[in-house]
Amino acid sequence: MCSHHDESIEHALLTCLWIVSAWFAHPFSYKVPLQTITSFDRSLFSVSQLEKSSDFATHISFVLWRCWKHRCDCLYKHIPPDPIRIALSSYHAANEFIAATKPGIPIPRQLQRLTQSLPCLSRWIPPPMSLNTDASWFKDSLLCGIAAIARDSNGRLVAGRAIKMMVPSAMAAEALAIREAMHLANTFPLQDIFISSDSQDIINSLRQNSPASDWTATNILSQVEYLLSTRHFN
């Protein structure tokens, strides 16, 4: 984002001055030790040792995710870097995830007989399998990387795929990522699948059964629509 250093993983997620500001702006106020960073994995291990709780690890994961997504937005959507946005969005997203995965509040014993006599109320049940997709595309080289990961209803990683190829546009890359996720879903034929993508253009096109806004993604989206018709997806 700063265009002052080589884009290593350490620079993209830790040492870029915009990213350093985002880490410090987060409610945990982590100050990145720029002088001691040697590799990303060692730095991540050091951060994880600051507090041995699953909630803290969740917040760290969401900061890293939002740093990467914001970097992509700056590069491809040409928005200015905003450390405060990274900090707040990662904090709120992590809190929502933590709240959604916490066990429910137990019913007091005094109310158990009453609740047993009431009719069952419908409630939301986490999908058995969630597939997340992402794509990165480089305009100068037309090279892209697409990825799809599958998690069970407890958030555990159960499968994943990553592919590098050349495509003509960013939208085509996002469409390929969704297609790859659907191929991955076919390895779980007996389970309901929830697929998520951050490409609003593609989501709108599939929901409205309308042509893609970028013609280079049209043929890929036609393949995705066919795969959608072969089984139940959300």
TrEMBL record:
Stretch forming the signal peptide: none
Pfam families: RVT_3
CDD domains according to UniProt: RNase_H_like (cd06222)
Molecular function (Gene Ontology), one example: nucleic acid binding
Residue ranges of every copy of the RNase H type-1 domain listed in the record: 132-228
Name this protein carries in UniProt: Putative ribonuclease H-like domain-containing protein
